[in-house]
Amino acid sequence: MTKYIVQGGKPLFGEVEISGAKNAAVAIIPAALLVDGVCRIENIPQISDVTMSLKILEQLGAGIRSINPHTVEIDCTHIRTTRTSYELSRKIRASYYLIGALLGRFGQAEVAMPGGCNFGGVRPIDQHVKGFTALGAKVVVEGGFIHASAKEGHLKGTSVYLDVVSVGATMNIMMAAVMAEGNTVIENAAKEPHIVDLANFLNSMGANIRGAGTDTIKIRGVERLTGGSYAIIPDQIEAGTYMAAVAAAGGQVLVKNIIPKHMDCITAKLVEMGVEVEEKEDTLLVRRTNRLQKTNIKTLPYPGFPTDMQPQITACLSLAEGTSLVTEGVWSSRYRYVDELKRMGANIQVDDKTAVVEGVDHLTGAPIQAYDLRAGAALVIAALAAQGRSEISNVQYIERGYEDIVSKLRALGADIRAVDEPEESESVAGVG
Ligand code: EPU
What we know:
Elements: E1 2-7, E2 12-17, H1 22-31, E3 38-42, H2 48-60, E4 63-68, E5 71-75, H3 86-89, H4 97-106, E6 108-112, H5 126-134, E7 137-142, E8 145-150, E9 159-161, H6 167-177, E10 183-187, H7 193-204, E11 208-210, E12 216-220, E13 228-231, H8 236-249, E14 251-256, H9 260-272, E15 276-280, E16 283-288, E17 297-298, H10 310-317, E18 323-327, H11 338-343, E19 347-351, E20 354-358, E21 367-369, H12 373-385, E22 389-393, H13 405-411, E23 415-420, H14 421-425
Parallel strand pairs: 2-14, 3-13, 9-10, 17-18, 21-22
Antiparallel strand pairs: 1-22, 1-23, 3-5, 4-5, 6-8, 7-8, 10-12, 11-12, 14-16, 15-16, 18-20, 19-20
The protein binds uridine-diphosphate-2(N-acetylglucosaminyl) butyric acid.
């Protein structure tokens, strides 16, 4: 087990290169199962969720060839089985995409119930099941596995109206429908950048998907997908996390390799808080010199403020002048990290979906624990801004979604290092 030791209070300066988007990669890798040929996927982030997704495909019989650390070739021509390893697939949330992909290509799938970050509440997949069923599949849960099979051997295009705007259900139904007979329409679809990325990936392999990025997606079933080459978009949330780190710790950082349009919802809020953001081509220059100001935030599906930035922005607001209201509109119980911020001196009260954040003038370092990926990122941000030393445990959550976070922050002048468990336990007493 590794911990991060952070000596806070140092502003950040320099440049940071943003990696490929986690939530696009964990969908596009399983989507390679739909392709009868070799797909070359570039700009893949080196994170543990991606490693796990590739392992699962390998276990199903895919040929995986690593071209360089960020490029792989996946060959799903000779898939051996449509039953995924229970142990592997239950570890990540995104294993639910294996259902849509296997069902779409082979008319059947057996996948362990997905795991992933636990926000303390339920993470249902009823909308995924609604879509598969509408396409003509029978879906049952038995022995920890979801079994899905096309009733007539193949799926049939249909119209699906999602009762909630779901990223996962939109992408999963898209995958299942890509080779279904006839046309499929997904209404009330999610519009996140990674939905467009998955559609672009599938289209570049021969699919016929229109409307991704709007709330109506139209899919005309094709006979077969063949190979090709595709580069994943930059990670909106990783970029937002570094922007928030500058907002909290102060300094000036050039955030490189981003799509500025994807960042608008985050940039707008940081600007309201007094952060200066200058856009130039595929970079953002982020500067914070004065104290942060309060603002109110409500998380919503894209293009609203992303729930995956809620913990990081709350960490920033805990240091802002005035009282801010943060309302969670996607995952109602995503506030487990607040108790950890309180250990550092933050003044935050959570009432149901809302956090009332009364800004304090400084935080102090403490031993703290990550409960999920973005909560972990929020603690790193708080620790960078805090006075004194913090020890962050459970960092395996952070490494599920942030490539080389320690090296990237160190390159910006942060005093952060990863240590193995035994080293940190002797130093707990010194935490300020
Ligand atoms: N929902 C349902 N039924 C469903 C599916 C979702 O009621 O069948 C509800 C959920 O309970 C939630 C809302 O709909 O309240 C949105 O859930 P969504 O399906 O959009 O989330 P997801 O696909 O499970 C992905 C990301 C999450 C991110 C959400 C929202 C992946 C692997 N995960 O989850 O990312 O928070 O979309 O944008 O893409 C993260 O990266 O830290 C992370 C948790």
